[in-house]
């Protein structure tokens, strides 16, 4: 990259809009543990028009670009090389409009998730996408990765909360599809092209978010289940028994519950002797009503012998204690080095998948420890393998991903492909699908300037 | 088209797989009122492999293709010329698999919607997409048009019920994205490209449908509302007050209710003297519970003076009588010639949109009659204009569509573009969006063989 380009970029975004030298290398290229940013410059446009001018210039000069949102992505999707410049959305954080009557919020994509959630609640409304990194992850990043999180069962992925979207293409063209309505069958749905594309097809600059009614109450239970069949029947019972109210159905395998409740940080609300533990949460009109509905459900489940034990929480602090068990990543980190995965598969295939995986691990690494938990209702399992050397990464990946073949699931439920999962993309997508993806990439980014080397080779 | 091609097609699909001559011209090119099919042949492949071979052959010979599903589309999307051949999915009607545990159904795309609904209910499950043409519309057609219908508010459009999809491209390539899971963040989401593309990017051959828990009960009310602001507040109250249960919020303007209840077919459950009438329906665990929740809601709404009258139905037959008012298309047809529209716009803009439209119509056609009703909760209005000559179609279209400019809504909420709405596509989509759509079309169908002249010029 020429000094000339830096000067031209500065002419567009002003001095405040560009960082170089140490200001760049002091930043990281991703979440905790990522290396320093090695890009030539970080460009921070103030608005879509500036960004468009920047992109046009880069296009003319064949300059590659990597977008940085909150850098909480978990697949090394935001990594740079010294050939790249970074576009950071950090100065594009406006809440453009909150339309309470239509339940939409229009935002620039640099705003973070928590701000959106809070602004919605201020209006008595609700933005349902939620994940641990809420304070840092940007709306643009959650769109680019189609983030999932804690309430997918009820509200869907980020994709399901986006009504409209504005993006800038590689050549600077602004694609404004800022629809504010649920229903818009007028030609190809362009927003869905950019959602989940991890910054390889365009830069998301604004979005119209769909807000929901704020749940006025809820109820939470922890239950113990002795076999997998009961687990899956319990999910069906909860889906129908709680009407539309079921918002979480989080399962911890014995291995996970045992580990976490074995630390000093927690007390086991139910003894750690069952095969599975499930957090069931429902959202609705009032705490009393939801409590009642959940109690009825647990009664039915006991009667049908689907559960062997249950605790219905009676206060926020009891609720938080139960979630703290599920959310205790620290307990996992203590087992480092760990091999962590985020896969999806049909619920009917889960039991045998986990059994086969355990057998495969045992055959090669007799000391291994396999820890499983996840959003069962979404078909999403987090699989953690420890007591296997870090250098055997590839062997573990092959077992975890290989076992998914032919099940109709996926090697990445939530986190995307980025750099990390690129070698395994063909485990989830056929050669014809990959060829079509490459055609689309070629059409929309003919010079290959957007997030080069990510997702597709 | 050469006789040679017919012979080659017959070699692929067999005698049963192809219709020519009168067998073609006796069929129609669309819903009631459409002209006779003018294609050279109707090819009826038995499976995806046959269809792929047909497409490959047509690609080599530059043969244009129009897909026929149930022919219930409402925008002349399935119209043929004598240059085309038709691909009909009528022999591809297998239910490939019902997986009750994962709540998925895998079907060939020629199966009709009602069959899918019934097969799901047989398993105690539920396919929520529903529309009047359920007995004839095919799953492939509902996918190609991203059909909406009666329960979008709660379950979304067809798009939201598709987990996986198989399609055949113009050159015969089979794209199999038959995911069975909710979460699959592995590269570009190809199913969303084909959903709503009206057969211009590929032919949908199979799909994995997402089934839901079957609602075990419900409740229905008809209420009267005196002003638009109360209407919109009532919607918010219903959304939060009924938890996830609200499944319909259908509004009839006075003009509609007055017309329909004025016929001999109906008795007005509430006198026809209010500004708006709303059907509120909720689905949940049991009739009693839902009845109770809805009763509470109506109580709150009365107290807040949002409604002036209400009837809570006490039986299926009372419920059916109320829906029969909403569904009485016959009453509209009696006013022929009519100009009918299906638009979407933010709820906050609806009142002034309708007022301006009325003023515009009055200025030009003093005798006009404007009748409005729709899925208010989805931002979707059906607008019917009568007592304006059929020859003034263009003038009416310009008023109806012109009024939408700048509102973030759309000229086609549910029905798509086809041939009929193509002249107005630019009212809802910018030149940059249309250019990008054309690029995608060009990439995926470089010879322009798929549904030529539909959606895009
Ligand atoms: C503690 C923690 C918990 C998490 N929990 C979950 C979870 O439950 N579910 C889940 O799905 N994920 C989870 N994640 C992953 C992460 O939070 C999400 O992927 C998040 O959506 C990324 O947002 P970001 O702004 O940090 O994006 P970044 O990390 O900055 O970028 C992610 C990718 O998107 C691209 N990108 C960013 N912004 C844009 C834009 N405006 N336009 C185009 N491309 C862009 C980047 O180039 C990169 O490829 C978690 C992460 C952490 C650290
Ligand atoms: C009485 C009535 C009520 C209706 N109510 C509603 C409603 O409430 N909501 C709503 O959204 N619509 C409604 N519609 C419209 C219509 O039912 C839907 O558009 C339906 O989804 C079309 O399905 P079909 O099989 O009849 O498709 P067709 O009419 O055969 O085809 C429609 C379009 O899709 C293409 N196509 C069909 N099958 C395929 C395939 N397998 N692959 C690729 N392209 C294909 C065709 O080429 C055409 O362009 C209604 C129609 C009627 C007649």
TrEMBL record, chains A, B:
<dbReference type="GO" id="GO:0016491">
    <property type="term" value="F:oxidoreductase activity"/>
</dbReference>
<dbReference type="InterPro" id="IPR016169">
    <property type="entry name" value="FAD-bd_PCMH_sub2"/>
</dbReference>
<keyword id="KW-0285">Flavoprotein</keyword>
<dbReference type="GO" id="GO:0071949">
    <property type="term" value="F:FAD binding"/>
</dbReference>
<dbReference type="InterPro" id="IPR004113">
    <property type="entry name" value="FAD-bd_oxidored_4_C"/>
</dbReference>
<protein>
    <submittedName>
        <fullName>Oxidoreductase</fullName>
    </submittedName>
</protein>
<dbReference type="InterPro" id="IPR006094">
    <property type="entry name" value="Oxid_FAD_bind_N"/>
</dbReference>
<feature type="domain" description="FAD-binding PCMH-type">
    <location>
        <begin position="35"/>
        <end position="214"/>
    </location>
</feature>
<comment type="similarity">
    <text>Belongs to the FAD-binding oxidoreductase/transferase type 4 family.</text>
</comment>
<dbReference type="InterPro" id="IPR016171">
    <property type="entry name" value="Vanillyl_alc_oxidase_C-sub2"/>
</dbReference>
<dbReference type="InterPro" id="IPR016166">
    <property type="entry name" value="FAD-bd_PCMH"/>
</dbReference>
<dbReference type="InterPro" id="IPR016167">
    <property type="entry name" value="FAD-bd_PCMH_sub1"/>
</dbReference>
<keyword id="KW-0274">FAD</keyword>
<keyword id="KW-0560">Oxidoreductase</keyword>
<dbReference type="Pfam" id="PF01565">
    <property type="entry name" value="FAD_binding_4"/>
</dbReference>
<dbReference type="Pfam" id="PF02913">
    <property type="entry name" value="FAD-oxidase_C"/>
</dbReference>
<dbReference type="InterPro" id="IPR036318">
    <property type="entry name" value="FAD-bd_PCMH-like_sf"/>
</dbReference>
<dbReference type="InterPro" id="IPR051264">
    <property type="entry name" value="FAD-oxidored/transferase_4"/>
</dbReference>
<dbReference type="GO" id="GO:0022904">
    <property type="term" value="P:respiratory electron transport chain"/>
</dbReference>
<dbReference type="InterPro" id="IPR016164">
    <property type="entry name" value="FAD-linked_Oxase-like_C"/>
</dbReference>
């Amino acid at each position: 990259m020429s000094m000339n380009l830096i000067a031209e970029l500065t002419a567009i975004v002003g001095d405040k809009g560009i960082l170089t030298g140490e200001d760049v290398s002091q930043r990281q290229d991703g979440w905790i543990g990522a290396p320093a940013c090695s890009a030539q410059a970080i460009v921070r446009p103030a608005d879509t028009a500036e960004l468009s001018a920047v992109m046009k210039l880069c296009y003319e000069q064949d300059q590659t670009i990597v977008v940085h949102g909150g850098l909480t992505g978990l697949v090394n999707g935001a990594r740079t090389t010294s050939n790249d410049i970074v576009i950071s959305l950090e100065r594009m954080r406006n809440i453009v409009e909150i339309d309470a009557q239509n339940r939409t919020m229009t935002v620039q994509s640099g705003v973070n998730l928590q701000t959106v959630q809070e602004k919605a609640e201020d209006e008595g409304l609700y933005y349902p996408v939620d994940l641990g990194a809420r304070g840092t992850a940007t709306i643009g990043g959650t769109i680019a990765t189609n983030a999932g999180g804690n309430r997918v069962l009820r509200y869907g992925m980020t994709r399901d909360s986006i009504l409209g979207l504005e993006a800038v293409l590689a050549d600077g063209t602004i694609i404004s599809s800022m629809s504010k309505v649920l229903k818009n069958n007028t030609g190809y749905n362009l927003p869905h092209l950019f959602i989940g594309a991890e910054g390889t097809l365009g830069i998301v600059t604004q979005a119209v978010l769909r807000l929901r009614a704020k749940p006025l109450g809820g109820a939470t239970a922890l239950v113990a289940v002795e076999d997998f069949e009961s687990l899956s029947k319990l999910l069906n019972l909860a889906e129908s028994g709680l009407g539309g109210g079921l918002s979480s159905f989080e399962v911890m395998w014995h291995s996970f519950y045992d580990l976490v409740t074995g630390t000093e940080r927690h007390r086991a609300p139910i003894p750690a002797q069952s095969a599975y533990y499930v957090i069931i949460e429902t959202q609705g009109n009032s705490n009393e009503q939801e409590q009642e509905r959940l109690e009825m459900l647990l009664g039915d489940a006991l009667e049908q012998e689907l559960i062997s034990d249950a605790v219905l929480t009676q206060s926020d602090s009891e609720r938080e204690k139960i979630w703290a068990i599920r959310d205790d990543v620290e307990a996992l980190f203590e087992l480092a080095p760990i091999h962590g995965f985020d896969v999806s598969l049909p619920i009917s295939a889960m039991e045998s998948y986990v059994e086969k995986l355990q057998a495969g691990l045992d055959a090669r690494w007799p000391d291994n420890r396999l820890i499983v938990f996840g959003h069962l209702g979404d078909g999403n399992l987090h699989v953690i393998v420890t007591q296997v050397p870090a250098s055997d990464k590839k062997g573990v990946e092959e077992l975890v991903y290989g076992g998914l073949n032919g099940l109709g699931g996926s090697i990445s439920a939530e986190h995307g492909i980025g750099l990390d999962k690129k070698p395994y993309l063909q485990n989830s997508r056929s050669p014809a699908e990959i060829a079509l993806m490459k055609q689309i990439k070629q059409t929309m980014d003919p010079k290959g300037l957007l997030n080069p080397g990510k997702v597709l080779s």
